[in-house]
Amino acid sequence: MRKAYDLIGIAQRAGKATSGTMAVQRSLKGSRACLLIISEDVSENTREVLVRASHKHQVPHIILGDSHVLGHSIGKPFRVALTIDDSGLADAIVKAVKSADM
Question: What is the rounded distance in angstroms from the CA atom of residue 64 to the CA atom of residue 70?
Answer without folding.
Answer: 8
